[in-house]
Amino acid sequence: MKILTPLEIQPLLNQGALLIDIRDTDAWQLEHIQGALSLPFPCSESGVLSHLPLVGKQVVFYCQTGQRTAALAARLKVMAQGAEVCMLKNGLNGWKKAQFITVFNPSLPLPLTRQVQMLTGFMIMAGVLLGSAFSYYFYFLPSLIGAGQIFAGVTGWCGMARLLGRLPWNRQG
């Protein structure tokens, strides 16, 4: 897969290249490149791309930093058969660093995954600090959070994300 800079991709977009964001929908809704389609991975493996006229077209995939796109390069190439497949170097972050405009919706909360990461980090740090300062019983908190993260990774169900999703700022409509 060719890795192109934002400066190299800009003319391709003007010539009709298809730009596909493989991040989660909530991240795309918060901020994305103008004209990009949201096709979250692994949902994008469902064959949605096979319904688009891709033969002879250029398709540019991107994520937040470019790491996920690079890791999935082989699978993305297979999904976009018939097209010239490229990826945006350094993803959305690289696009913004090159000072290209993005569509940003400040009224939306941070993506739920980032909220979970921030809360788990805070709870782990609090448990460690309280355990060091007061009682080793506080070490139970980081252990519980770690077990919850393992469970979420294995099952795909995250209780903390479910709880955070019910908070007023995360409710849609």
Structural overview:
This protein is an alpha/beta fold. The chain folds into two domains: 2-104, Oxidized Rhodanese, domain 1 (3-Layer(aba) Sandwich); 112-168. The chain is built from eight helices and seven strands, in the order βαβαβββααβαβααα. The protein has helices at residues 6-14, 25-30, 67-71, 73-79, 91-97, 112-133, 140-155, 159-165; strands at residues 2-4, 18-21, 31-33, 37-38, 58-62, 84-88, 102-104. Strands 1-6-5-2-4 form a five-stranded parallel beta sheet. Strands 3-7 form a two-stranded antiparallel ribbon. Helix 6 packs across helix 8. It starts with a strand and ends in an 8-residue tail after the last helix.
Give a concise summary.
It holds the Pfam family YgaP-like_TM. It contains 8 helices and 7 strands.
Descriptive labels:
173 residues; five-stranded parallel β-sheet; 8 helices; alpha/beta; single chain; Oxidized Rhodanese, domain 1; 7 strands; two-stranded antiparallel sheet; 46% helix
